[in-house]
Amino acid sequence: MLKTLGKYTKLYIYVLAFILPILFMFIISSALHFYPFGELSALVADTQVQFVDYIAYLKSVFSGDNDLFYTFSKTLGGDMAGFTFYYLGNPFIYLLLLCPNDQLSAGILFMIILIMAFSSLNFNIMLNNIFGTRWASVIFSVAYAFMGYFVAYFNFIIYFNNIMLLPIIVLGIYEIINKERISYKYIIFLAASIITNYYIGFMTCIFSVLVFVYICVVNTKELKSITKYFKAMGIYIASSIFAAAISAVALITVLLSLQDQKPNSGLSSIFSIKLNFPLRDLFAGLYTAGFNGNISDGNPIIYCSVLVVVFVFLYFMNKVVSFKEKIATGILLLIMILSFYFDPLNVIWHGFAHPVGFPYRNSFFFSFLLILIGYKGFILVKFGVRKYQTAIIFAIFFIYTVYLLLSDNAYVHRGQAILTCAFLIMILAGVYAICYKREYMYPVTFGFLIIFTFDILINGYFSISRYYINSDIESCKIGYYEDYAKETGEIIDYIESQDDSFYRIDKLYKRTNNDAMYFAYNSLSHFSSCETVPVKLFMGNLGFASNDMWAYYGIEGNTTFVDCLLNLKYMVSQYDSTGKPYEEIKELNNKYIFKNPYALNFAFGCKDSIENVTTDKMNHFTYQNSIAKGITGDVYGIFRPVEVVDINLVNVEKDDKVYKKINKEEEAYIEYELNIDSNDFIYMYFTAPENQDTTLYVNGDEKQPYFNTYNWSTRATGYFEPNTIVPIRINLNQDEIEIDSYEFYYENIDELKRWYEEASKTKCDVYKISSSNLFVSADVDDATDMIVFSMPYDKGWKVSVDGKEVNTKRVLDVLMAVDITPGEHIIEMKYIPEGFYVGSIISAISILLLIIIHLYDQFKINKLIKGE
Question: What is the spatial distance between Cα 161 and Cα 51, in angstroms, rounded to a whole number?
Answer without folding.
Answer: 14
